Amino acid sequence: MADRFAEVFRLRYAEVVRLADRILGDRAEAEDVAQETLSKLAEHEVLARPDDEVRAWLRRVGVNASFNRLRGRRRGSDRMRRSAAADRPLLQPDTAGPQLAQMVRAEERDAVRAALARLPERQRACLLLRHSGYHYAEIARALGIAEGSVGVLLARGERAFRSHYEQGTTNGID
Amino acid sequence: MASTRPDLTCPDEGRLRAHVDVTDDTVSAHVEACAACAARLDDLRASARFAARAIAGLDHGAPVDVDAAWAARPRPVTAGTSRAWWSGTTTGIAAAFVALLVAALMVVTPTGRQAAADFLSQFRAERLAVVTFDPDEPSAAMEGIDEIAEVEVDDEPPSAVADLDEAADVAGFAPTAVSALPDDARADQVVASPPSTVRLTFRSDLAPDLPEDLDGAKLMVQVPGSVVTTYALDGGQLFVAESDQLVVEAQGADLADIRTYVLSRPEVPPSLARQLLAIDDWTATLPVPVPVDSDAWRETTIAGHPGLVITDTMGSGVLWHDGERIHAVAGTGVDVDRLTRIADSVGG
Questions:
Q1: DSSP E strands: which ranges in chain B?
Q2: Does one domain contain both A16 and A52?
């Protein structure tokens, strides 16, 4: 079983990191989530199951762990705003152009995360998984829902996400 | 030659959205003949494109170093043996201790009766009771809560502090002194967790089967601050933990109904639900989850207060409620009699 765990770890670790990173926006924290998720797998019976089941389990547990962390560190939009401001590089006169572009990108990412954070959990997970390249059947398996529900969650989630994003940027929340 | 007539029934939103990703010929034929659905489809496509671009922009693109991650992966406390239910890293036990309490509350949604239209009912833990659970699914109930309620957690992680004075500042209470530590005990680390709040809002859009009168009901779980002191022993470790009062407040619904609904959910294993429903005085009883494969547990008395002794393959722990705070003394390489003597000396 130790060999099996090593195999899955090497195959899936980066995937879990990237998924968590999309949710958390913090690579170091995403790596923590991936370690935590893989460490749960080491002692879980699903490890003995076929690869697609293990992968679905990792996605579900990784997504849940990421959202748990997001909720834990979130203290409303003020907290997110402070965090965004702290991460933002100071402009230097000789590199103002590239830094300005970097700052704009950082602000856009913050706005996207803030809009995502306002979605109900399942809609948010569904959006992130779908736009990370997962198919409907994979999403359904990862979230434990019927495949026919994926389209509904996506439709509602994407509409609400766009609305929250536009509302946030218009109000200057992010 | 027969021609294919478009389906006159407008597809539901989910099917229309799925058509954005994978062409559905039936939907295509319908949309060509239905202006309303064509407009809905355009709107869904626009929102999908918008979300795709936005979410793609979240990537940092930095490579992931899998070799370094493999080398840095967490190892079990003791190789080749199972991990004790209460053990972990010295910082982990504080989190585990708090998580244990939170998990217990999440499962046993506190109960009471609404005294007024805008009522506030309270649960206060005054005693402990063992409930067993399957260790392979320790977080099933927590995960299930997300399915029926919006969960907001307002907390800060545990942190290592210099001494008990600093721990008091973080936890919000002065930890009780232990007067009978073993001679070989050497203070290793003090970890303190500040009080935090978990708010649950039950919502029918998350749980279609949520009873109407529970829609919008709220539970506020005041997770207490806690302090865990770790001591190194010759051939073992000792943990002394203390947690402040647990309080749960509920608003906007009949708590008995909330409890009945939560415990009927499929995420709560039937055996666990049965045990929780069997607790008579549940407005004042904190369930202590113990794995079904734990070697043994029994009731005990610590300094005149009822408590529990729990033993597994890795060690033992003693938990008790002194009427004001919850205490735990646990250890590896320490027998139950010794742990009980230490526990009896807390506050002595």
A1: 121-124, 127-133, 149-154, 159-161, 186-193, 196-202, 218-223, 226-233, 236-243, 247-251, 285-291, 296-302, 305-312, 315-321, 326-332
A2: yes
User: Pick from A25, A109, A155: which is nearest to B14 by CB?
Assistant: A155
Instruction: Give me the CATH number covering residue A91.
Output: 1.10.10.10
pLDDT, tens digit, 9 for 90 and up, residues A8-29? 999 999 999 988 888 777 788 8
ipTM given for this complex: 0.71
Calpha distance A161→A4 (Å, rounded): 39
What is B165-189 written as a DSSP string?
HHHHHHHSSPPPPBS---TT-EEEE
Domain identity same for B118 and B237: yes
Residue range of the domain that includes B47: 13-52
Contacts 24+ apart (CB under 8 A), A159-163: A159/B43, A159/B44, A159/B47, A160/A118, A160/A119, A160/A123, A161/A115, A161/A116, A161/A119, A161/A123, A161/A127, A161/B47, A161/B50, A161/B51, A161/B54, A162/A115, A162/B46, A162/B47, A162/B50, A162/B51
Residues A61 and A99 in one domain: no
C-alpha torsion A16→A124→B109→B278, nearest 10? -60
User: Are residue B34 and residue B172 in the same domain, yes or no?
Assistant: no
Q: Which domain holds residue A172?
A: 77-174
Confidence of residue B99 (pLDDT cuts 50, 70, 90): very low
pLDDT in tens, B232-278: 888 788 888 888 877 777 788 766 677 777 777 776 677 777 777 78
Counting one residue from A and one from B, how many pairs have CB atoms under 8 Å apart?
130
Residue B16 touches partner A, C-beta closer than 8 Å: yes
Residue B257: how many other CB atoms lie within 10 Å: 15
Put simply, whether B18 touches A (Cβ < 8 Å) is yes
> Is residue A133 located within the same domain as residue A165?
yes
Residue B158 lies in a domain: yes
Interface of B with A in 46-105 (CB under 8 A): 46-48, 50-52, 54-60, 62, 64, 66, 69-70, 72-74, 83
